[in-house]
Amino acid sequence: MTQKNYQAGENYKYPLIIKKILNTPLIYSPDKEIVYRDKVRLTYKTLYERINKLADGLKKIGVKPGNTVCVFDYDSHRYLEAYFAVPMMGAVLHTMNWRLSPETILYTMNHAEDDIVFVHADFLPLLESIWGKLTTVKKVILLKDEEKMPATKVPIALEYEEMLKNAQPSYDFPDLDENTRATIFYTTGTTGSPKGVYFSHRQLVLHTLGISIASLYESGIGSLRSKDVYMPLTPMFHVHAWGVPYVATLLGTKQVYPGRYEPETILKLIRDEKVTFSHCIPTILLMVIGHPMAETIDLSHWQLDIGGSALPRGLAKAAMELGIKVWAAYGMSETCPAVTFALTKEYMEDWDTEKKLDYLIKTGVPFPLCEVEIVDDGKFLPHDGKATGELVIRTPWLTEAYYKDPERSKDLWRNGWLHSGDVASIDKEGYVVITDRLKDVIKSGGEWISSLTLEDCISQHEAVHEVAVIGVTNEIWGERPLALVVLKPKYKDKITGDDIKTFMRKFVEEGKLDSYAIPGHIEIVEAIPKTSVGKINKVALRKQYAGSKPR
Predict the structure, then answer these.
(1) Annotated active-site residue in 49, 334, 455, 466
(2) Contact 342, 328 (CB under 8 A)
(3) Residue 448 falls in the annotated catalytic set
(4) pTM, rounded to two decimals
């Protein structure tokens, strides 16, 4: 443990800083495990020692408070160590989305003014391709899973484990100002240059406490306890893996890190390590349950929080048929990210599965300390489940601005609320339902059509593996919806777009869909393009189908 100095006569002003999160597991769960694939097993005691060594090693190579440390890695124990050591010593952790293009990565590294880079051996060619254009990087630390040193033109200062081996197991982490910047990363999937989103120690600690409190609600889903086994399936470069690694550490849960996302490896870890809690986007869930091994193992102990984009009812049912407990949640890069989750209330406990599913796929109710409203033309709209407007948000963990970008920061924050860019309704019980992104909603003949509602309906056809709906220009109606559908392998060449349109008529008859909303054309495709974080890339789809003329 770090040496403490005792000074009499002082009132200690307790700061909400990341190092305080580590106090609890070291008392309650010192021998619980942190697992990396089939390669590494640590305890919280050894994790803490490695965090101290990492900070000492960084100090020895010149890292000072305010410096920025960039990380290229898969989900790993090393990344977890960086989540703590880097901000705890007063530096800033830049979590790098290595799926971005080299040009975008170069922009973000120079914009963030990275000083030190941790890079996994797999990503050395990527770093090598931009090395001569980086303007601030001083040293590179190599991360590797294999014994041999890879060949590269990038000058490697140290290898990670060697650095820790030569470092001291104790580091005097300071009591920082809780408003010190702790992390930065960059948004993706938008037009224009990526936007830097940053968070303070205070914001990350409050976000951790907010999720921890929410997990106490007795609803049959969404609970994360110290007895659970946690494995993230949201990349750790993406909004701190939704902040849950901090929560899991505070609770002292066993943690499992899968490294590169390979469905068979993920399923083996779920089986062998008895994983009970994960979170991911819909495309990752599709990848995992679509693997043949998913049918051969018991998944009934696995809870799964789905965010990043809407949880289609068809996908939720497919997961539930395998015994997986699933529910939706919502947040943004700018919100740290937790805002709402699909909590089912106590009086709903006796409902049948289909009725509960209506709520489990909603955007959900606000997390503790979150306030949400819907607005239109600057006016608040009623919570009646019918009125729709832009979702605006207040919580103590929202980003204050975009890094070095005052103009776009002004657009993000207006009238004291963070503007999400999402169209939503809120009902009398507080449930939010995102109906679309402002940029994705389809206006046809003066009427608004929700692409998310169409995707949800189409996903319920037994032959549909994946679906995306976009609006394309129409001379008569202004816009019309176009649906792109990927079929499950056994239905290829057996199901047509017209078959799916016929299936959609039942939603019109049930009053869930207006007849004019049914796409005039449903195109069967082999694949749907994704963004760097695995979401459906509607920007690319709109460019690809800009010239099409559906009815």
Answers:
(1) 334
(2) yes
(3) yes
(4) 0.85
